[in-house]
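G., the chain you wanted modeled:
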Amino acid sequence: MAGEELRPQRAVIRSSTGNWALQSALDRRGLGPVAGVDEAGRGACAGPLVVASCVLRPGDARKLEGLTDSKLLTEAARERMYDLVLARALDFAVVVIPPAEVDRIGVHVANIEGMRRAVAQLTTHPGYVLVDGFKVPGLTAPSTAVIKGDQVVACVAAASVLAKVTRDRIMTELHGDLPCYGFDVHKGYCTADHTAALNEHGPTAQHRWSYVNVAAAGRLHNMCPPHEVARRVVQNGASPEVGVPGSRRGGTRVR
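Predicted structure as tokens:
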């Protein structure tokens, strides 16, 4: 039938290629270069949100053996993979979104905007973009959201490593200025030690005042946010719509 003649061939994804399978299939169909995008620090209540994009060279799997979700790597392995990705990547970009911007527009909006910026800053225009977790409208190329993309797609895993190592280094530097919070250990996430430090010392300008635990610690110390804050408070960055001005889901008003 004529319709069947016009139907394009299906792309074959070979499971033997591991987390390079989807990228390789897109490359074979002429949809490369393929960019992966991921973030680090969405759930943290202190420090920046960091978003990275990365374009890997097709056929580089052996050169980047062991590449996977940055959260599954030890710190030493992440640092080693970070250097490898910088050396081997065809292109990459890293966007750092400070806490004040996260508070002003909400964490989900900041995340989406950061992903757009990270793709736009690539000097190699991608033919296709693979994003970890959820759809990102407004990208400059066709895109697909991949569930657990940082584990199943190599270029997304590479982006996760770039974002995670960049953010961890920023938090370690912040520890030098604010040692009482232990940023070098928990990297701004809501551990018991971080919560205790927040309650004892109160939040700083490096904290996200749109997060419920930070807002509560600020009230405990009669402190006001040092910058504009979205009307609703985020429960640890867990819900995509929480923290977006005007959102009616999952948030608690700042009182």
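The radius of gyration is 20 Å.

Shout if anything looks off.
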